[in-house]
Amino acid sequence: MNIFKNKYLYLNHYLYLIPAFFVIHVGFQYTNTIEYSDLVLLTLIYVFVSLIVTSIVYLLQKTFWKAALFTFLLQLTFFFFGDLHIFIKTNSSIPLFSQYKFLLTIIILIIISSYLFILRLKEKPARFVLFINSLFFLFIISDVVNHFVLQKRNTIILAERQFKNDNIELVHKPNIYLLVFDEYASSSSLYQRFNYKNGLDSFLIKNDFYVVSKSRSNYNFTPFSVASLLNLSYLKGLKENDITQKDYQNILALIKKNKLVSILENNGYYIINRSVFNLENAAAFTRSAFLPEGLQILRNQTFFLYAFEDIGWNLLRFGNQFPVFFRHSLQMSKQQNENILEELIRKDDSSKKKPYFLYAHLNMPHPPFFYDSLKRERPIDSIVNETRNHIYKPATYLSYLKYTNGIIENLVTDIQNKEKNNAVIVIIGDHGFRSNITKKEHLFANMNAIYIPDDLRKNPPPDSLSLVNEFRFILNKIIRKEMNLLPDSSFMLTDHNSEIMIKND
Q1: CA–CA distances in Å: residue 22 to residues 30, 56, 129, 139
Q2: pLDDT digits (tens, 9 = 90+) for 469-502
């Protein structure tokens, strides 16, 4: 019996094969942060929607296979427009081809022409249906084999393997506060770039902090910087000039299962997480709009959400509804900072569970710049315009930095009074101020201050301590056997959506 005479092969299987391929192909890249059950659920949702669309078109055309073919065209646009747009942007030397007004016009014309062509067909194109069924079936088999059999999973790993089962014994167990202030540049960088003398240093030194004047982050993007900080290690497996969404998700997995928290938990520490990152036994306190997780990663690659992320800001020009939407989104970011600060200052039962490690990550003085130096709220329209156009002026940054200094001073005073100066306090920026850059070293020049209780203050930190060594230095104060400090290095990462602009001197 000739297998190709089997009518089952010519049915419209592509209606579910295409959604399944999209979810499998993209989802398998993010299995560090997405559950297989969620992938199955999303596939079923997309298949159901495809059948609904086919049914609606069928009401117009009265022929199911014609409706299915038209749905096939819509599926290609919905699931793979983002890939097409990125391919054209990357490979075309003619900017017009990647512009939405051109590309969407061409796609709409193709869809209309194809619809009219399908209407004129007299019989089902059986060979074409067999071809697309077979093509997407083979695509799915290939992805499944690569993932489960060949295990082709490009991952980022830690470069150093010094820690064996995290079996490090702490001799002293002070409470530890890690307070990260996003994009807070070092005082030397602020002075060199803007002739600004940061008064926060004097306050911190007066309160017995070590201020690491030549500190630097190891990476210029937040998740990578935080991963190296919490894992006391450099990252291996990065393509520095081609950071992808997959890399971000791999990094989130390294942050979740990081070495520092593992060491502390093995020594009886209670973990308090006031950040946007998930830790192994302490979920993120709030969510970041810039770091989608779970099924949102896949959904963001479909047509409407991909296009909205690219050109959504243009909708601000139309009517009142869209400006209100974007204002609300920015206000949510502001509220996240305030919620974290409220949690840090309020007196709760967490302080009774000792020893504890508290990690807080505040999105300041990182833009959006919500306040000025006099603690006044800035006009929301100005914030929207800055965010829309990625225009962050140094004067506005410095004003927000002064506001942030007041926050830091209040936190330090509150923590030292509460802890009676017996806790370790780390106040750092994860990278430097990334706008108006003239020299790339300023991308890494971060604020870094460490308070060590009096009975542990043996030697000060090196003046050029980088974040990968931050907790190597701190743990050396409280463990039985010292760890070696790593060479201090910085790695500049770039991705297709980076807002960082390096100007030539």
Answers
A1: 13, 23, 18, 10
A2: 999 999 999 987 888 999 999 999 987 554 443 3
- pLDDT confidence of residue 500: 40
SS3 460: coil
Question: How does pLDDT run across 269-309, given as a tens digit for each residue?
Answer: 999 999 999 999 898 888 765 666 677 778 888 998 888 77
**Domains (range + CATH), the chain:** 3-149 (no CATH), 157-280+332-475 (3.40.720.10)
Q: Which residues contact 99 (CB under 8 A, 6 or more apart)?
A: none
Distance in angstroms (rounded) separating the CA atoms of residues 85 and 296: 20
* pLDDT, tens digit, 9 for 90 and up, residues 432-463: 999 988 888 999 999 999 999 988 888 899 99
Cα angle 379-397-186, degrees, rounded to a multiple of 5? 160
Rounding to the nearest 10 degrees, give the CA dihedral for residues 251, 257, 259, 261: 120
- What residues contact 361, with CB distance under 8 A and at least 6 apart? 180, 182, 226, 274, 275, 276, 277, 340
Residues 6+ apart with CB under 8 A from 397: 365, 367, 369, 433, 435
Q: Which two tokens stand for residue 265?
A: 């938990």
